[in-house]
Design brief:
With 314 residues, the protein is of the alpha+beta class. The protein is built from 5 helices and 18 strands. The protein folds into 2 domains: 163 residues, Nuclear Transport Factor 2, Chain: A (Roll), CATH 3.10.450; 125 residues, no CATH class. 15% of the residues lie in helices and 37% in strands. Strand 15 and strand 16 form a beta hairpin. It starts with a helix and ends with a strand.
């Protein structure tokens, strides 16, 4: 049984390239600055608590973050005396560049910063890329290793909970608005799954803000299959549960260590689903699917709740 789990852990490590992170000098790099109360005059500077980014490739370039409703704001607070210095992609550590290429296949670079202290020493890096036409902001440590995914907000949501009904991040209300009943999947999606993966049992489905369909299924393991807004097949991803039994569990049933890790690494994330991974009835790990800033991640943990790896789904 131990050998069996060892192979599962190896599979997780190989299939998952440890996830990403957004921006900010937050508590690791210092104390919080207050967000501006006048959101009509918000600007992005080397020490401001936000970074303005165009919400999509068709939104133009957000440089000052003043008035565009097509901008989102990466939450990033620097310690007193620290600053963000804009840098070219080539100035990012090789480990950061490799991480982006391995986890966000096909991404396009938007902007990057070196987070520096009063002596000019780099204390970390912020890298912002576009993936599936959505901005993803990641924070890395000084040695280039991943730290966290930075939260994004819309301009009028900088104060408070960070979302509003009808907004870009409305799924944060906890009401599972993006969940789609399996019976409501387009006929083309259901037909594709039946024809291509007849042994799969469909478990759960989501419809993204952009209209794409994400279908979770199990078949001696866990899988996610992605379809575009027209119901056309996009990709299929094997999740870390090969040769395991999957037992669906509620968010509140996850070990405290897992809940703490997710909160710290994916601020204001949205819970989608979770499973215990079992071998012959014994818990060998956990698999959690989340939505962070409208990008989906599968995050794997061992039986004690220790982080193993994360994979970008869509």
């Amino acid at each position: 049984m131990q050998y069996q789990f060892k192979s599962i852990a190896q599979y997780i490590a190989s299939v998952f390239v440890i996830a990403l992170t957004l921006t900010s000098c937050q508590k690791e790099f210092g104390s919080k600055q207050n967000l501006p109360t006048d959101n009509t005059s918000l600007t992005t500077t080397a020490t401001s608590p936000t970074i303005a980014v165009a919400a999509s490739s068709s939104s133009g370039t957000a440089t000052t973050g003043g008035s565009s409703s097509d901008s989102v704001y990466v939450m990033h607070t620097c310690e007193k005396g620290h600053r963000r210095d804009s840098i070219a992609f080539t100035a990012l550590p090789a480990t950061v560049q490799a991480y982006l290429g391995a986890n966000y296949t096909g991404y396009s670079f938007i902007k990057a910063f070196a987070v520096k202290d009063t002596t000019g020493t780099s204390k970390g890096y912020v890298a912002i890329v576009r993936f599936n036409d959505k901005p993803v902001a990641l924070l890395f440590k000084a040695d280039g290793t991943f730290s966290k995914v930075l939260e994004q907000r819309e301009k009028n949501d900088l104060e408070g909970e960070g979302w509003h009904n009808g907004g870009r991040f409305e799924f944060r209300d906890g009401k599972c608005k993006d969940t789609l009943a399996l019976n409501d999947l387009p006929q083309s999606v259901k037909a594709y799954m039946t024809t291509s993966y007849p042994s799969d049992t469909l478990v759960k489905a989501f419809k993204t803000r952009e209209g794409a369909y994400i279908v979770f299924s199990k078949n001696n393991g866990a899988f996610v299959t992605v379809f575009n807004a027209n119901g056309g097949f996009e990709k299929r991803v094997a999740l870390p549960a090969v040769e395991c039994e999957l037992e669906n569990i509620a968010q509140g049933s996850l070990p405290g260590a897992i809940q703490s890790y997710l909160t710290a690494t994916y601020p204001n994330y949205v819970f989608n689903k979770a499973d215990k991974l079992k071998v012959n009835g014994t818990i060998k790990g956990y698999l959690v699917i989340i939505n962070a800033n409208n990008t989906r991640y599968a995050v794997a943990f061992d039986a004690d709740g220790r982080f193993l790896a994360a994979k970008v789904i869509f």
